[in-house]
Amino acid sequence: MQISPSELRRRRALQAAFLRRLGGPQPLRAIFDHLPGVSFSVKDRESRVIFAGRPILEKFGMKDELEIVGTTDRDRYPAHLAEVFLAGDREVVALGRAVIDRAEVWYNAQGALDWCLVTKLPLRDRRGAVIGLMAAMRPWPG
Questions:
Q1: pLDDT tens, position by position, 119-134
Q2: pLDDT grade, residue 33 (50/70/90)?
Q3: Which of 22, 66, 69, 129 has its CA 20 to 30 A from that of 30?
Q4: Which residues touch 36 (CB under 8 Å, ≥6 apart)?
Q5: How many Å apart are CA 77 and CA 54, to the nearest integer?
Q6: pTM above 0.85, yes or no
């Protein structure tokens, strides 16, 4: 479908106006707290957590999101797992490309090693530079 430049501008303005009324995209994060089995986070270029959904906080026994903000996977996982997760983050940031449904090992909600599917997408600033990533993890289907 071809969209004219004027229609693109109108649609971008519609989005921007809506987000201004919300006060930014923060309220949209709530959906990630209520998707069964999905853990969601946002990290900066250094893989420090900026946002984390409720399932992640609960998994680590945290009550407040600020308990996890600024930490990395090294602060929560054994070194061998943390390095795998961080290497995946570095790949997304360095190449600026998404990783979709990559199979990885993680600790599930019961604290046991299990398989999951991870999707990581680069986050870009207004100029297009990668400033971080967002990630969603879900249990291996089956």
A1: 999 999 889 999 999 9
A2: confident
A3: 129
A4: none
A5: 18
A6: no
The CATH homologous superfamily for domain 35-139 is: PAS domain (3.30.450.20)
Q: Quick check: helix, strand or coil at residue 74? A: helix
DSSP class of 23: T
Percent of the chain at pLDDT > 70 equals: 99
Q: Which long-range contacts (CB under 8 A, 24 or more apart) does 44-51 make?
A: 44/131, 44/132, 45/93, 45/130, 45/131, 45/132, 46/72, 47/72, 47/73, 47/86, 47/89, 47/90, 48/72, 50/132
Q: What ranges do the domains of the chain cover?
A: 1-27, 35-139
Distance, in Å, from the CA atom of 105 to the CA atom of 84, rounded to the nearest integer, reads 9
The predicted pLDDT at position 134 comes to 95
Q: Which residue has the tokens 């809506």?
A: 18
Bridge partner list, 130: 124
Alpha helices by DSSP H, listed for the chain, are 5-22, 30-33, 54-59, 79-95
